[in-house]
Structures are given as structure tokens and as C-alpha cells.
Recover the amino acids of this structure.
């Protein structure tokens, strides 16, 4: 399948390019950092599949889909889950929330291939899942005007502040980013992290001690709330 990537974030494009290269049945024919430039190309060329970011300046992915004359298959990629219903209402094959793991990307591609050719989809699964995938040990978060790579092992704890979170790291710095604690909890719960309070997620490996209803990480004493206490203690075998 001939595919196109449309995303205003260079790191997101780079990641998707790498993923596409791993799937023999995909051929990347072009990339665009804005949807406006992609309109004429899509209308004038044969494209089977588009990996399309939703939130882009001036002209969103939703606007793009409503503008183009040809309608290839579309897999939406976005940092926010708020548009999922609208995306599926537009007939999207799938909806991927960043950071996108390869196994989830592959599942979307197979879903697209099942629409075009079920036999090809079966072949893609066998060709691209023969070797185990290395577990991702980092994530990218949006901070001001760039995407910052954060290694899980470098994160001490995360503090929720309404719509934003502060991610504290081992270099005695923090990164402020617009993301929910729930989303981070879902991402990090299998990576050695635990939510111990409605406002805190901690990296268990950096816990120095546990004192009554608090944990000590670096020089910060972080409260453990009753609603998260049992689950946390079970996780650390206390």
C-alpha cells in the first residue's frame, strides 16, 4: 500500500517513517508537515493510506479529510484522545494516541490491509511479528515548542497540576507538559511506576524509604493517599 504521513511534529514523522520501513507491504511515497500542502498531492496521486495528525496549526486533520476529493484509508495519529469519536465518524480505519508503540501501529496497518486485501493482512502479521519487539523504555512529551525524549529510568516522580503535569528527573530538573495523569498512569503502570495519590505518580526504583503515609524520593516526601495505598503496597510486596 502506498502511504503518506502528514504531521507537523518532525519527531512524530521520523518515528512513523521508521515504523513504515519495518512493514514490507507499505511504501512511503511522501511526507508533509502541514495538511494544506498535502491536499493537491492527495488529489493528484494514487495514495492508499494516510497517517494523519489531527491537531495541526491553521488546517486540522479533520479539515483535511473534509477537503480532499479522493478518500484514501486514514489512520489518525494524535496526542489527544478527545477526537476519537469524530475521527471514527469520518470513517477512519483506526485512531492512534501518541506515543505510538510499534505493535499498536502494526495492528492499525493490518486493519487497513484487511479492508483492501485480507490475504495481504495475514502475510503482514507473519512477516512483522516473527521476532519479539524490544520494549520501549522512553517516551516523548510536548514541552513548549518541542517534543522532549524522556527515559523512564530518569523520571523520579510526576506531579499533577490541573491540566498540566510536572515530570521531575534525576538531573534535579522538571519538565512541564500538557497531558493528564490518567494517561501517564496507563502508560507507565507496567514500567515500574505507581500512582500513590491523585496528584502523584512515582518511579518505584527511586524510592529511598517509606514512612507512614509518605515515600521519600530524592529529598521530596510524597504523600500516599488511602485510595491508592493498598494497590501500591501490593505492588511493592508490603
Amino acid at each position: 500500500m502506498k502511504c503518506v504521513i502528514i504531521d507537523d511534529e518532525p519527531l512524530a514523522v521520523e518515528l512513523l517513517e521508521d515504523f513504515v520501513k519495518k512493514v514490507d507491504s507499505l511504501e512511503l511515497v511522501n511526507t508533509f508537515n502541514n495538511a494544506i500542502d498535502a491536499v493537491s498531492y492527495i488529489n493528484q496521486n494514487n495514495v492508499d493510506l494516510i497517517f494523519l495528525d489531527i491537531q495541526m496549526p491553521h488546517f486540522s486533520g479533520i479539515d483535511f479529510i473534509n477537503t480532499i476529493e479522493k478518500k484514501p484509508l486514514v489512520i489518525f495519529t494524535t496526542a489527544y484522545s478527545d477526537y476519537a469519536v469524530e475521527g471514527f465518524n469520518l470513517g477512519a480505519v483506526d485512531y492512534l494516541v501518541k506515543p505510538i508503540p510499534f505493535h499498536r501501529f502494526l495492528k492499525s496497518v493490518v486493519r487497513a490491509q484487511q479492508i483492501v486485501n485480507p490475504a495481504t493482512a495475514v502475510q503482514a502479521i507473519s512477516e512483522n511479528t516473527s521476532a519479539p519487539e524490544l520494549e520501549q523504555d522512553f517516551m516523548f512529551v510536548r514541552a513548549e515548542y518541542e517534543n522532549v525524549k524522556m527515559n523512564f529510568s530518569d523520571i523520579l516522580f510526576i506531579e499533577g497540576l490541573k491540566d498540566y503535569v510536572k515530570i521531575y528527573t534525576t538531573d534535579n530538573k522538571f519538565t512541564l507538559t500538557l497531558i493528564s495523569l490518567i494517561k501517564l498512569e496507563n502508560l507507565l503502570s507496567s514500567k515500574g511506576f505507581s500512582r500513590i495519590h491523585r496528584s502523584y505518580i512515582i518511579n518505584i526504583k527511586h524510592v529511598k524509604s517509606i514512612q507512614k503515609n509518605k515515600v521519600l524520593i530524592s529529598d521530596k516526601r510524597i504523600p500516599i493517599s488511602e485510595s491508592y495505598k493498598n494497590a501500591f503496597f501490593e505492588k511493592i510486596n508490603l
